What we know:
Elements: E1 10-14, E2 21-28, E3 31-38, H1 41-58, H2 66-71, H3 79-94, H4 104-109, H5 121-133, H6 144-154, E4 161-165, E5 168-180, E6 188-203, E7 208-211, E8 214-217, E9 220-221, E10 226-227, E11 233-238, H7 241-265, E12 269-273, E13 279-281
Antiparallel strand pairs: 1-5, 2-3, 3-4, 4-5, 5-6, 6-11, 7-8, 9-10, 11-12, 12-13
Amino acid sequence: MRAATALIALALVPITASAVEVSRARYLMGTVCEITLDGDPPAVDAAFAEAARIESFLSTWRDDSELSRVNRGEAEASAELRSLLDRAIAWRDQTGGAFDPQIRPLLDVWRTRSEGSVPSRTQIEAAIAIVRTHRGPFEEGAFGKGYAMDRMLSVIASPHVVINFGGQISVRGASRVSIADPLRRDVPMVNVTLRDASLSTSSGSEKTFVVDGRTFTHIFDPRTGEALPPRGSVSVIAQDALTADILSTALYVMGPDEGLRWANAHHIAALFVTPSHQIFKSNAFPKE
Length: 288
């Protein structure tokens, strides 16, 4: 599984110290996953095994995954997969289509899984027509990792856990994190304390392709069919990683004006960083 959105790395400073702290990392779902917890090394192995299980049934980069077989019409979705897809579809409806789990036809026509190219408007409209039927194949890039993080936490009993999965953070307990500059990942811009929550950041600064001097990201507006240009970043804090993962993508698609209105109307903790380094926070974002 490889993320369809670029995520900004976050610097972590645990608030609670432990005499026996375990920290280990593994490459999963196309990125590095690091788990830090108080003791109990077997729980780390169990969490990594759970993430590997999610990747094996959900990744659309694997032809043998359950989701790939469901997309090809070769299998019926299991109860677990059906429940997850239903949750993703519900967010499509709530975000007015700014997030859409069945966006795969647009990824294909823009060739974002290879070198990238700009399709004709006719090709884009044909892809949008498939997306709007809600019968197209599912793409897990904007929700698979969040789901895996929630599942990983469910198999760990430790009272203090930090999972850093390619820049998305999930915390049980409390940890101090820094949201980085969209263009300079080693430069922190905003510090915030996460308490029993997850923070996901979507940005167009990493995964890009250039055609005729124009830079495009791998983040799409499902409503227009357009690959979006780099335009800062959006960070979302939610109680579960799946929601944070999905909404950071949706609000990036909406942009600061529409996105901030939507976040405030739905009591979502969101922070927008524009290309000119302006920062906009929703009313629910922690005031620190």
